[in-house]
Every structure is written in structure tokens, then in C-alpha cells.
Amino acid sequence: MDTQVGNKFRLGKKIGGGSSGKIYKGTDIQTNEEVAIKLEDRRTDHPQIQRELKLYKILLGGTGIPHVRWYDVERDYNVLVMDLLGPSLEDLVNQCGGKLSLKSVLMLADQMIKRIEYVHCKSLLHRNIKPKNFLMGMGRHANKVYIIGFGHGKKFIDTNTHQHISHRENKSLKRTGRYAHCGREQGRRDDLESLGYVLMYLLRGSLTWEDLKGGTERQKYEKISEKKVSMPIEALCHGYPIEFASYFYYCRSLCFDDKPNYAYLREIFHGLFKRERFQFDYVFDWTTPKYQQSQRSKEPAHVPGPAHKPNNTLRLPIANARGHPVHGSYSRHLISFISTSTRCLCFTIEFDRSLMSQGEQSKKKSMIIHGEATCTERKREREREREREREREREREREREREEGEVTKWSKLIHDKLKHLE
């Protein structure tokens, strides 16, 4: 295989792959930026890259949607070049010992629901929700969740009738068996239910049906489907906060063409997050060592006490009592920080007597320099920042009130539906 693609990108090492092709790390020859290069054999029975490209164009500009840089056919391959992202959630859960903490899962869930909501608002279904298709960003976007893998995506609004696609039963269960729907035409509710399975997988480290085997792939997926249908939600979520069961109950209460209330689903997990008194600080399980190291690096350096006598001589511009500048060498000095909390630099310097007139010596032996002007300006800036934060908090409160109104309405609706099901 050539090491260059389209005379634009240099092919590097393989970093992933699946049924839809292989993914390599690459480099933009002109800018030297790192990219991800996906290669798909043109002779494959079910090509997906062109479908992915079409959907990425529809989703262009959304938060957590990678940018497509280039597409072409290169010899025997369909080639898709995109932004290089960080590790997948599958990689990270393995890195963290096979499961994630409740805090990490809840912080991820908030972003993952938003990603799926954005995909749905473009009239698209993902239909392949799994940990490998959620990646973290890189650099300043390292805390952002990205969604990829749209090779099985589909529009749920008919382009001719502009109506929701019709419901069909007895669809074959295929693709991502551990997380997929239960053998029916997929809708928005099924993307969300599959996300629920992903969240439980991240928490538990496994799903009860993932090791099921069959003589053929079809038989295997049929067994998975039967297991999912027969397993009560309480059994799936046993030993974990009730909010996860509530999430599944809501998803399963939706009709095929219902529009989910994504704000309600996020609020379910927000409530749990608050109850556990977690901080939404984006410190995930895999960043904890890095976070601790960064905290250690922020510790203030040791400031020598009076017993420490530096040998070097300082040269500083000083003003005398009349405000005229005086320059000289100061062999004896003592710096003592009076107030670090207000960030006002207050220190005393003892100067050689030779720098002062006798009159000045009799009046004053030490000189105190106060950064009063700087301190005042900083106080004003902090007050302005506090006011801006208060305004942001007021806006968040208004948004919460709007969401709570929606949540109350949907809580009553789901309660009525569950009561009817009982």
C-alpha cells in the first residue's frame, strides 16, 4: 500500500478498524497536522464510507461532530480523511480496569445524550451506538465527547412524504449485538435505549448477553434479542442507582415515532449527580493521575525565611520621600509577603544607610511599597467578574425553570404510562 494518499496525506500506523474499513493515523503533507484516514475496500459487499460522508455533511458544524477534511477514491480504496480524535470509550474503560466510576459515567452520559439529540434533530438515526463510536477529543478538546461511525445511519423522515418512516416488526438483529435494539425497525427511542446499554456496560464492565454464542451470526443475534426481551429492567440495573432503571422505563414507554424528551433524560442523571454531591469538573477516571500531578505542580514554591540570606545584590529603582527616583545597590533586604489572598504585593525593604540623607535616616529606616493601585484595579475586575457570573447564574436558573416545567410534564406522563402498563 502506498504511504501517501492523494498526494495530500502521509499514511501512518493503523489505529483502529472494523467491518467498515481500517483507520490509520496520518499527516497532512502541507500543514504537518495529524489526521485520521479511513480506508474501505471498494470491492466490499456493503460499502459505508459514502453513506458516512453524506451524513457527516448533514451534521457539519455540530458540537462533538468530527470535521471531514477530504474524500476520494484512491486505487482500490474509498478514502475518508477526518480530524484525529483521542481514545474511544472502549479503550478508556479497558485502561481504567474494565469499568468506570459513577461520576465519570454521569459526566459522559450528559454529553452523549446531547450528541444523540443533535443527530436526531437533523432527522438522522445513528443505529450503531456502542462505546467504540464515542471518542474523546484531543488537546483543548480532551474533555469533549465526539460521536462517529455513521456507516449504518439512516434518515427517519421520508424525503418524499416528509413523514416519519413506518414501523416494521421482525427486523433481523444485526451489527452491535451487545448494545442494539430488540429486533424491530429502529427509531429515535432505540438509539437512546442502546445508549442505556452502553452506560450500563461502562458501569458494570460487561453485559449479561455479550458472551452468548450461536452456530451462526444470525443465531447468535437471535439469542441476544431473546435475552434482552426476557430480562427485566430491574435485573439489568440491579445494584445500581434507580435512575438508570428510570432511563430505560422512559425509553421503552415511547411510541415508535415519538420525539424523546432529551432534557428529561439529562435531568434524570443531573438529579443523581447532585444527590451524590459530585463536581462537574471534567476530571474523569482516566485523567485523575494527570489531574493530581497538575495540582501538585500548582503548589506554591517554598519562600525562604529570614534565616536565608541570599548573597546576590539587588538593583531596584526606588523613590525617596519627595518622590524623586533613587538608584543604588541594596545589600540587605527582607521580603515578607503580608497578604497573598488579596494578591496585593506588600513588602518591606531595608536599605543601606548610604542611600538616604541623614534627615531621611532619622525620620525613616525602612520603606514600605504598596501595590495599592494594582490591588484596587484587581478588586474592581473581580467584582465585574462576579457580576458576570451572577448574570450567567440567573440565565442558568431561567433555563432550569424552563426545563423543570418540561420535566414535570413528562414525569407525570411516564408515571401514567407505567401505571397503565402495570
Any overview of this molecule?
One of its GO terms (molecular function) is protein kinase activity. Belongs to the protein kinase superfamily. CK1 Ser/Thr protein kinase family. Casein kinase I subfamily. The protein is an alpha+beta fold and 422 residues long. The chain folds into four domains: 4-83, Phosphorylase Kinase, domain 1 (2-Layer Sandwich); 89-288, Transferase(Phosphotransferase), domain 1 (Orthogonal Bundle); 314-370, no CATH class; 377-422. It is 39% helix and 17% strand. The protein contains eleven helices and 16 strands. It has helices at 49-59, 89-95, 102-121, 188-204, 217-230, 233-236, 242-253, 262-275, 288-297, 358-363, 372-421; strands at residues 4-5, 9-18, 21-28, 34-41, 68-74, 77-83, 124-125, 134-136, 145-147, 154-155, 314-315, 318-319, 325-326, 329-330, 346-350, 366-370. The protein has a six-stranded antiparallel beta sheet with strand order 1-2-3-4-6-5, with helices on one face. Helix 3 runs antiparallel to helix 4, helix 4 packs antiparallel against helix 7 and helix 7 (242-253) runs antiparallel to helix 8. It is globular and about 60 Å long.
